[in-house]
Specification:
217 residues, mainly alpha, Four Helix Bundle (Hemerythrin (Met), subunit A), two-stranded antiparallel sheet, 7 helices, globular
Length: 217
């Protein structure tokens, strides 16, 4: 008499199959914006880099909104999406600002420790979040990383008021303050969970895009 083996392992889907997920596609769109931002930072086209950085935030918020509205996602789909989003966040909010700082500082070695601390803080911040999640189910411990980009694109609006040497110091200090806040014990609300904040980000993204596009022209 034959019996059914309930211990048959579940077949693993192909890696590339997860690209069909709309939320993951949105995450990858944000990563594409960051790659462009990095390219423009290296090229010295900082206005274009700012546009890429703010759109990375917009797509990061959008992927969560899409994921919460999708039906039929399995537990593995959700886990994969969370891991992908987390890894991309390190690039969006750690690597991109670090390269911006290095480029604006003309790759002087004095900017290298700052670049490391920015990337390290983002990796530590995300590892902590992935371990403990939201405090009280509603607040982040440490400043959420998307604030890094939102703050830096605003600070960069004042670049023309300073000499390059002075603004490089402003940028360095700002980046280090943000990194310190990322790994601090302060608690901040999850902004993307509030629909009003989603509209505010949309307005901010369009305004920043318009201002920096005008600067490019």
């Amino acid at each position: 008499m034959t019996t059914v083996n309930d211990d048959t392992p579940e077949l693993q889907p192909a890696i590339i199959s997860y690209v069909k997920d709309a939320a993951n596609l949105c995450s990858l769109a944000g990563l594409a914006c960051t790659v462009l931002s990095i390219y423009f930072s290296i090229s010295g086209l900082y206005a274009a880099a700012m546009i890429g950085m703010i759109w990375a935030v917009a797509f990061d918020w959008a992927d969560g909104l899409i994921a919460r509205r999708m039906k039929g996602r399995t537990a593995n789909d959700k886990t994969f999406g969370m891991q992908l989003d987390s890894l991309i966040d390190v690039v969006n909010y750690g690597v991109a600002p670090a390269i911006l700082l290095l480029s604006y500082g003309s790759y002087d070695l004095i900017f290298l420790p700052g670049a490391f601390l920015i990337v390290a803080a983002s990796a530590i911040r995300l590892s902590y979040f992935n371990t403990y999640g939201l405090a009280d189910g509603s607040k982040y411990t440490g400043l959420a990383l998307d604030n890094n980009n939102m703050a830096l694109v605003f600070i960069f609006l004042f670049e023309s008021f300073f000499s390059m040497e002075v603004f490089s110091v402003v940028l360095y200090v700002s980046a280090l303050v943000l990194a310190a806040l990322n790994v601090s014990q302060i608690q901040t609300p999850k902004l993307s969970s509030n629909s009003a904040n989603v509209y505010r980000l949309a307005f901010y993204t369009l305004a920043i895009t318009g201002i920096y596009t005008w600067k490019l022209l």
